[in-house]
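> forwarded from #structure-qc
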């Protein structure tokens, strides 16, 4: 088992965490980054100060910026690239992998221009490859420090999801399996939009009651859209749904929650982006999710207000007022 060669595309916090975890399990790991100077710096220092500060990367992890080397001869290729760049990166690796290679998406986002999930983008660009997704409440700093964590490996192929489960499970990371790829991907992506709403609540100085309302009603609208798109309802009450939603909405380390908090304090999106090193996937996903809600004629009031806060400069207090003034209805 330990001879499985793994290439990780994306040297952000989560990609680097997975490189550390897998190397410590004895797997040969190659970690690719888009910027050659930074990859060289990481390879020399064995540190990733921008995205995973304070964590040493094992010497056995090969850190490179040549993408074809990262892909060739690998049994598993992990896609840990921000959602809006995934398609362009996939274009660079066509023809460099074998037909038996398993592609694992760990990106929690939806492409803006197509409103497609990452697994759909991968299949569209690379053809009918073997495919799985890994998602869940997995804050990188906690996972890499060995804090007990759970995640879900989803694939329509039972053998593939079992393989991912075995490869990625550790004594401190418990990986479950699920055949519902649509549900797992939507849960991991849409919760970032709800986390922005929770951050807005924090920025406005609201309390626990408000956050509980956003969490529960946010989960309801995620489930509504998911069901229309072919997901299983029970997936959203699981680890990659409710579990990931709660973590992202309450964690001080959540980039998406922080974006919302800054919005609530009166900052606009341009000001917020200027001071962020890492991508907050909820920002582009708010646009994608709103487009999906219109396409599928699905009511998603929180998502709609987050979209308007981000892209139409709507006032946070007005957004709250409009949500509270909606017509009375059954739960």
């Amino acid at each position: 088992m330990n001879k499985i060669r793994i290439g990780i595309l994306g040297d952000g916090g989560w990609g680097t965490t997975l490189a550390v975890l897998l190397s410590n399990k004895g797997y040969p790991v190659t970690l690719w980054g888009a910027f050659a100077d930074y990859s060289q710096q990481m390879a020399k220092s064995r540190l990733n100060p921008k995205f995973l500060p304070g964590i040493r990367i094992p010497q056995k992890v090969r850190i490179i910026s040549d993408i074809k080397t990262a892909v060739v001869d690998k049994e598993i290729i992990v896609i840990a690239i921000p959602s809006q760049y995934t398609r362009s990166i996939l274009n660079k690796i066509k023809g460099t992998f074998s037909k038996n290679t398993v592609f694992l998406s760990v990106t929690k986002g939806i492409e803006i221009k197509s409103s497609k999930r990452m697994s759909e983008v991968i299949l569209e660009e690379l053809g009918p490859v073997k495919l799985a997704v890994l998602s869940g409440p997995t804050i990188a700093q906690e996972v890499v420090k060995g804090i007990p964590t759970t995640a879900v490996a989803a694939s329509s192929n039972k053998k593939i999801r079992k393989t991912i489960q075995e490869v990625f499970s550790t004594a401190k990371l418990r990986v479950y399996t699920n055949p519902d790829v649509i549900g797992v991907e939507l849960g991991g992506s849409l919760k970032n939009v709800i986390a922005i709403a929770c951050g807005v609540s924090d920025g406005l100085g609201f309390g626990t009651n408000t956050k509980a309302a956003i969490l529960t009603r946010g989960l309801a609208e995620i489930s509504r859209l998911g069901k229309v798109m072919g997901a299983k309802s029970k997936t959203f009450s699981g680890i990659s749904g409710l579990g990931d939603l709660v973590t992202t909405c309450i964690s001080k380390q959540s980039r998406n929650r922080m974006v919302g908090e800054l919005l609530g304090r009166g900052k606009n999106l341009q000001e917020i982006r200027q001071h962020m090193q890492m991508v907050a996937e909820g920002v582009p996903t708010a646009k994608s999710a709103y487009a999906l809600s219109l396409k599928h004629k699905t009511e998603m009031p929180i998502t709609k207000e987050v979209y308007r806060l981000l892209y139409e400069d709507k006032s946070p207090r007005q957004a709250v007022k409009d949500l509270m003034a909606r017509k009375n209805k059954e739960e």
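QC bot note: The two ends are 49 Å apart (CA to CA). The CA atoms of residues 143 and 287 lie 29 Å apart.
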